[in-house]
Write a structure and sequence with these properties.
Blueprint: H1 3-14, H2 21-33, H3 42-56, E1 60-64, H4 70-76, E2 84-89, H5 95-103, E3 111-115, H6 118-124, E4 132-135, H7 142-149, E5 158-162, H8 179-187, E6 194-195
Parallel strand pairs: 1-2, 1-4, 2-3, 4-5, 5-6
Helix pairs in contact: 3-4, 6-7, 7-8
């Protein structure tokens, strides 16, 4: 970020609800123990995800791309009584860290971690429809995920897709991916809300 956006970010953080101790611990561990800490949802995006989840009060949440579990715990804040969140992570090296963080959470019994490829999981899924879905994985796979998710949602389902502008890369002619390409399969059925980094 440049100095202008840094100042805006700091201003927004000051006026947002604080993150709890466990989220702060996850943020610190992410910066110390991972090679790409910028993938963390972080304070502002985390509070926004919690806000959306609390408005929706979902019974069944799907998260595609767990990373270090920050967004998972934020989404869990809005779960309905008896609700659950299923989160998919393909990097098996993160499993121990994730299980440790989730075990410390008041939502431990409601979080189901699946160490699995998202495409394979979605193709084989035969369960109930999802109420809230958060896509935060490899951007090039979003169209595939969208297609697979069409039969796993229902009226009122909400899909949140993170960083579909791919840090501005969608404006580069050398990148064969675009916002219309990412979103077109779902535009007729869903309201697309962009969150996260430009």
């Amino acid at each position: 970020m440049n100095s202008g956006s840094d100042a805006i970010h700091e201003y927004c953080e000051q006026l947002s609800s604080p993150q709890n101790d466990l989220l702060a611990e996850i943020e610190r561990a992410t910066h110390l123990q991972t090679t790409q800490p910028r993938m963390l949802s972080g304070h502002l995006q985390g509070r926004f995800l919690a806000f959306l989840s609390k408005m929706q009060r979902p019974r069944r949440v799907l998260e595609i791309g767990t990373f270090t579990g920050y967004a998972t715990l934020c989404l869990a804040e809005g779960l309905a009584d008896g609700g659950e969140i299923h989160t998919l992570e393909v990097d098996v090296e993160r499993e121990e860290m994730l299980q440790s963080f989730f075990a410390q959470s008041p939502y431990a019994d409601q979080i189901h971690l699946h160490m699995a490829d998202a495409g394979a999981y979605l193709e084989s899924y035969q369960g109930e429809p999802w109420d809230l879905i958060f896509l935060d994985a490899a951007k090039k796979n979003y169209p595939v995920y969208f297609d697979l998710l069409q039969r796993q949602t229902q009226a009122g389902s909400v899909i949140i897709a993170d960083n579909v502008l791919w840090s501005g890369k969608v404006s580069m002619k050398s990148i064969r991916i675009s916002l219309p390409l990412l979103c077109a399969p779902m535009l007729k059925k869903y309201k697309i809300i962009r969150i996260g980094k430009m």
